[in-house]
From TrEMBL:
InterPro entries: DUF885. This is Unannotated protein. Pfam families: DUF885. It comes from freshwater metagenome.
Amino acid sequence: MGFYVQAGTLSPQTIRRISISRNSQIDQIANRWVETITQLSPSFATSIGSSIGADKLDDFSPAAQANYASEAKKVLAELKVATAVDDTDRVTLDALSADLSLTLEMYDAGLYRRDLNNIASPAQAVRDVFDISPTSSEEDWKNLVHRMNAVEGALAGYQESLREGIAANDTPAKRQVRINIEQALEIAGDDGFFIQFATTAEAEAGALPDSLKTELVAAAKNATSAYGNFAQFLKQELLPAASDVDAIGRERYELFSRGFLGAKVDLDATYQWGIEELERVVAEQTEVANQIRAGASIEEAVKILDEDPNRKLHGTSELQAWMQKKSDEAIESLGGTHFEIPEQMKLLECMIAPTQSGGIYYTGPTDDFSRPGRMWWSVPPGVNEFNTWRELTTVYHEGVPGHHLQVAQAVLNKDELNDWRRNVSWSSGHGEGWALYAERLMLELGFLSDPGDKLGMLDGQRMRAARVVLDLGVHLGKPKLTGEGVWDFEYALDFMLKNVNMPKEFVLFEVNRYFGWPGQAPSYKIGQRIWEQIRDEVESKEGTFFDIKKFHKKALNLGGLGLDSLRKALTL
């Protein structure tokens, strides 16, 4: 969907090996499209382990956007006259055609010229690619000198696109511009990202020639200066022209929703479902709180659980050992019953991340499984105590049966999936929807029968349901749930604070994210709903012949499809 590609987690060997197994006309078209994306987007190439463009950055200019759309149009034309030879081809044809068609719709809507938010826009992408750039050799750091020197040009091209929006009176909201001014100024500070990044060269790559060190320092200063100039552009040119309206509006919201789900949903019906789902989860939480202590409120139950010494882990070593134990137990219990887990996938390493951002995430295995799938916990500075009741559901979300089975199965299924299906085809509705489906499934299977563990799962489900209501309420201009006026920022923040058991600073960042990145946050919970609907449809169709293990295997073997394509592949 557009110039930005959600990359997979595969090694550079992937592209060379798949063509041996599948080489139909449609596979060839899909594989060539991946090659095109790799050439057009150095950040995508870096994300899949390719060395192509390792010394470059993406071009975010209007000309680059037009070129990407032109290339997408060519591929779509090829697909329209291509002949599918089997079911795998038919799925690829449907999914890739839908993806490219949406890409062109989003381009025609001019969304690139107002693309600015607090987490996932070119303003962040230019910097973020350095987080995944190789840094282990002298050659890597030579590439990074060029990549840092390319920051100025990448931001200049991005500014051209934003200036197009200014000329067309089609600009991002002032709220997002102000946040990005702060972010850009932080990067442009005397101890900003690029200055610190250059100082890590010695530690990352060992001894480097003095001349290269000098070049690194100079390149870091250039990149830092580029972000300083970008901050001034935002402040002096974009902010005065920026929109006073946060809401994206129904027509454009529908495009974003389709992009993040890979499916078209009735937005008004989904909003109403979100309200009802939130009420249902709160009622379920209340029931569980009463099991923890008779008559306890949700807040009182949380306090009881947080103070329970039997539900605490002390230090990252205990955390890592507990994660590994729970992960191993899930693999042992689910393999052969509800999932078919091949030997290569039975090893999932639980790791403490070297970073300290507070995130929890999964990285897939290499193509040959020489590096297994890994679940990472990035522990913030000073945090030494962890509550198992909050975190058990996260182990299932990131590991088994969540992202590990989802990603590793696609890696393993190289004989059936072309490059696009394995490397590019992904939507948060499919990926995160599956992970939430996995959490709820573990409750159904009895793995979260302890009231505390169940409350932890419901805590996350409540947040995801609340995001559906907030996101649709804001961007569709819905009336507040109180009936007085439409959703605004203050109301949205208060609503989220009442439904999320997290610090206000985190909630504030999240609400800003929802306001600036329409359709993304709801895709998790809506994706879960669609996954559950598809399973129910298949079960209804097959009756007594329904086998959940076979359903899961078939679904995961398809790779990361848009949810409309997934539904067709599994139910037709």
